[in-house]
Amino acid sequence: MALAAKLQLRQSQSLVMTPQLMQSIRLLQFTHTELEHFIDEEIERNPLLERAEPQDDAASDQAQKLDVEPQASADGDWFENEAGWSAEAISEKLDTSLENLFPDDPGTSERLGPDLTAQWKSASGSGGSSSEGLDAGDMAASGITLRDHVGEQVALAFIDPVARLIAGELADGLDETGYVRADLAEIATRLGTDEVAVGKVLAVCQTFEPAGLFARDLAECLSLQLAVRDRLDPAMKALVANLELLARRDFQTLKRLCGVDEEDLLDMLAEIRALDPRPGMAFSGGASDAIVADVEVRAANDGSWTVELNAETLPRVLVDHIYFAQVSPHAKNQAEKDFLAECLQNANWLTRSLDQRAKTILKVASEIVRQQDAFLVHGVRQLKPLNLRTVADAIGMHESTVSRVTANKYMLTPRGVFELRYFFTASIAASGGGDAHSSEAVRDRIKQMIDEEKPVDVLSDDAIVDMLRESGVDIARRTVAKYREGMNIPSSVQRRREKRALASAGR
Predict the structure, then answer these.
(1) What are the residue ranges of helices labelled H in 66-135?
(2) How far apart are CA 471 and CA 486, in angstroms?
(3) Which residues is 473 bridged to in the sheet?
(4) CA 97 to CA 278: how far, in whole Å?
(5) Engineered SS bond to 166: which of 81, 112, 201, 458, CB 3.0-4.6 Å?
């Protein structure tokens, strides 16, 4: 068959991603801070755009009501919230990793027994501040770095140029937690001095504020803070020197080594808890940004839920048609006319895109509230399994649109602030063939079972599986283990060892 070149005409339809359409898609997944930054750039680029004056009722007209009948419906500490009460690794990692001293999960202290738990939870002091004259929040917000703060004290503490040089080298070796990670012998060799001189300078630096700076390990950090408080007596020295026993909950041995009774040990633990294990962190990164909810859910007077957009997260822009009418007749050439026409088109498109974004967020949030009404009324145990497709089908949108809308958006509910994606959980089948269970609700059940277990009857993963199946949850043992590990709850073997140590300490 001969090959020949020829022309063919064909008509077809296809979706084309225009720049405006791509912009609308991007706006959907922006957080409110990213959106603010994007709008600032657009206003700077487009002379026809301007911000609208804030109005108190900016989002009130977006409210929607759902026909739902609602019913009546702690600060942690650093011993609880830091990761890692691993007895197996504590002895070899204690000097190099702070995190290994502290509990795996915030619920660990609840399993310590009534006396120790009460003391663990309540302690005098300022919640971890090691110096009365310094406020961690103020230091972080002021933008002062750890190096700057230490440098000021070095300039005041040392007159001798050599000592000041050594102190500067030590300060350069501080990590973000305020610990000296550099080797003193290496510093001495590098500066052409002896290790004794470096040690003397280090001793002076360890008196700097906040107390605990320039420590070489956790024990030294705590000792420096206790010395400032005049609490580094022999008993406390013994406790700080045996932190690995504290990690293993070996309270019986600690009482013997410290030469104290149970009441004194409880007081000492409270003092340890009130210290700051990472004093340098007050200078790192600045203050944390507060989460601002994009959607607010309230119980209405008529018994329904009111879903509203948060006006603070809805930047409003206006198109200045008056300015366009003034300048367009004075366009000198076609390029200027095209520029003004493009600015007007982009401005109109942006305002429509922002309006569509707000409506889409509200529509998705309203459907989530409708689907998860039982959660709002009764709590996490009533959280329903939910996926993106279910919401997308209910509101007539594509699944990818729902995914973009729920990314990094937050909802304020009577039960707290939740990311929108929190409400989308996997489904776990019911053993009796009834309604499926949410994976988040099952996690909560597992945590409660372990929290309520008795010291003489620690629940294994298999026992938890049996209990869940009796309550209608069809779940595998490996799934229970995965959920337990995800909540940083130790295995039954480790929990049993801890409870035995507590029982021995109580005798």
Answers:
(1) 78-81, 90-93, 114-121
(2) 22
(3) 430
(4) 11
(5) 201
149-157 long-range CB contacts below 8 Å, 24 or more apart? 149/283, 150/174, 150/205, 150/208, 150/213, 153/208, 153/209, 154/205, 157/204, 157/205, 157/207, 157/208
Cα distance between residue 364 and residue 404, in whole Å: 11
Which amino acid, one-letter code, is at 86? S
**How far is 101 from 121, CA to CA, in rounded Å?**
17
Taking alpha carbons only, the member of 68, 114, 148, 59 closest to residue 359 is: 59
Max Cα distance, the chain (Å): 104
Rounded to whole angstroms, what are the CA distances from 147 to 177, 180, 204, 283, 366? 12, 12, 16, 9, 49
Place of tokens 């002062």: 144
Q: What is the dihedral angle through the alpha carbons of 265, 270, 273, 274, rounded to the nearest 10 degrees?
A: -140
Neighbours of 244 (CB within 10 A): 18
**Residue found by looking up tokens 């930047």 in the block:** 315
Specify the residue for token string 């305020």. 178
Task: Using DSSP bridges, classify how beta strands 64-66 and 305-309 pair: parallel, antiparallel or unpaired.
Answer: antiparallel
- For domain 427-506, the CATH architecture is Orthogonal Bundle (1.10)
Q: How far apart are CA 234 and CA 478, in angstroms?
A: 47
pLDDT of residue 504: 62
At 188, which amino acid appears?
A
pLDDT, averaged in runs of 10, over the chain (507 residues): 81 75 83 90 92 57 43 42 39 37 38 36 36 46 72 86 86 85 85 87 89 88 88 87 82 86 82 85 63 90 87 89 90 90 92 92 94 87 87 91 90 91 84 76 89 85 89 87 87 80 61
What is the pTM (predicted TM-score) of this model?
Answer: 0.54
Within a 10 A sphere around the Cβ of 18, how many other Cβ atoms?
A: 10
Domain spans, the chain: 19-70+290-423, 78-283, 427-506
- The angle subtended at Cα 243 by Cα 240 and Cα 244, nearest 5°, is 155
Neighbours of 496 (CB within 10 A): 18
Say whether 437 sits in a helix, a strand or coil. Answer: strand
Phi, psi for 326 (deg, rounded to 5): -75, -40
Helix boundaries (H) for 284-387 = 321-327, 334-371, 373-378
The DSSP output letter for 394 is H
Tell me the C-alpha distance between 259 and 245, whole Å.
15
- The rounded distance, in Å, linking the Cα atoms of 103 and 171 is 30
Token duo for residue 215: 């420590």
